[in-house]
Specification:
The protein is of the alpha/beta class. It has two domains: 124 residues, Rossmann fold (3-Layer(aba) Sandwich), CATH 3.40.50.1400; 158 residues, 3-Layer(aba) Sandwich (Rossmann fold), CATH 3.40.50.1400. 48% of the residues lie in helices and 13% in strands. It has a four-stranded parallel beta sheet with strand order 2-1-3-4, sandwiched between helices. α5 links the parallel β3 and β4. It starts with 8 loop residues before the first strand and ends with a helix. The model has no long low-confidence stretch (mean pLDDT 92).
């Protein structure tokens, strides 16, 4: 960053994180930090420490390392590579009144490192954008908590605004739909699958102050997620189903031609349903031969998209009799994604600029 740069706003963009390398020690280090987060595995500290450090990290790290080796590129981790590309492109789009920094919730570059770099610059406001379209305690909530835990130690608490979620933003829907249309224009598909990262049901229930979530969970049409309302608007599962409805409308998909499902289960606990694995098997058994998959809970391609959806579910689909499986890539560094971020930043900074001007006018009138 140019030392003469006079940014008035700090913009912190945050994704989940990635190991520093696909080697087993780095993967183990990442898993320990990630899974020791009480918002990720929400059980008491001592049993969580024992579970992560004595069971999950030692045994899962070597297996995960092999998978990370498959997704690693000459540019390193795709998630981190696209993160830095977005940082650069968004900085160029916003101009000199803003300073954009990428951080990862786990590993590097860290949130603390970015905020400490912001600290002496005395920004009028710091805008934090977690890269999770739908709100979940384990993702957006964890980023918010980490930011607040760091900031609360400062003598002067800066003005901070968080972007809570953006799955309903028309530009987000349009950006994913435009990517999908490129596939739909070249091939005929029997079914469209929208697969989202899963969560344990227990986490949904803990955040359900209205006591209305997870009623008749097997279908969106008859359950609590059939319509987004004041009661469930903060529910991750309901937001995912609403994302599907908005994307289906933008793509012009008829009812019955698409399904919402949830992937990436860990452990024996009940997670939100339907499970993607079960849906993939069901589609193949129903005679569906051509399926197009979207992963609208990820804005950058990573292990969960490229490998889990793009390869593992494809293999499962073909084993069950399916013929053609394709994955729509994530937003990555697409121009529409950069424009969406630019507009979100401007929305959160324009009010501050307007307030500054109003205060200046009042001060001048008094003079």
């Amino acid at each position: 960053m140019n030392p003469t740069h006079k940014a008035r706003f700090g913009v912190l963009i945050v994704n989940l994180g990635t190991p520093d390398s696909p080697k087993t020690p780095d993967v183990r280090k990442y898993l320990r930090e990630f899974l020791m987060d009480g918002r990720v595995i929400d059980i008491p500290l001592i049993p969580r420490w024992m579970l992560v450090n004595m069971i999950i990290a030692p045994f899962r790290a070597p297996k995960s390392a092999k998978i990370y080796q498959k997704v690693w590129t000459e540019n390193g981790s795709p998630l981190k590579y696209y993160g830095f590309q977005v940082e650069k492109l968004l900085q160029n789009a916003l101009g000199e009144n803003y300073e954009v920094r990428l951080a990862m919730r786990y590993q590097s570059p860290s949130i603390e490192e970015a905020l400490n770099d912001f600290k002496p610059k005395n920004f009028e406001k710091i805008i934090v954008i977690p890269f999770f379209p739908q709100y979940a305690s384990a993702t957006t909530g964890s980023v918010q908590q980490e930011v607040m835990d760091i900031i609360k130690k400062w003598q002067i608490i800066p003005h901070i605004e968080f972007v809570q979620q953006f799955y309903q933003n028309p530009l987000f829907i349009k950006a994913f739909a435009e990517l999908g249309k490129q596939y739909l224009s070249k091939h005929t598909y029997d079914h469209i699958l929208f697969t989202y990262h899963g969560l344990p049901e227990s986490q949904i229930r803990k955040g359900d102050d209205s006591k209305t979530c997870l009623k008749h969970t097997n279908t969106a049409e008859t359950g609590c997620c059939a319509v987004l309302s004041t009661h469930n608007r903060s529910c991750y599962r309901a937001q995912c189903f609403e994302t599907t409805r908005l994307l289906a409308k933008e793509l012009g998909l008829p009812e019955g031609s698409y399904t919402t499902a949830f992937q990436s289960r860990l452990g024996k606990a009940i997670w939100i349903q339907p499970y993607t694995e079960d849906v993939v098997k069901k589609l193949a058994k129903e005679g569906k031969k051509n399926v197009l998959a979207f992963s609208p809970s990820f804005v950058a391609d990573c292990l969960e998209t490229t490998i889990e959806v793009g390869e593992e579910y494809k293999e499962l689909f073909e084993e069950q009799g399916g013929k053609h499986w394709e994955l729509v890539e994530s937003l990555n560094e697409s121009p529409m994604w950069i424009e969406l971020l630019r507009k979100m930043v401007l929305e959160h900074s324009t009010t501050q600029v307007a307030l500054d001007r109003m205060l200046q006018v009042i001060a001048e009138e008094k003079i």
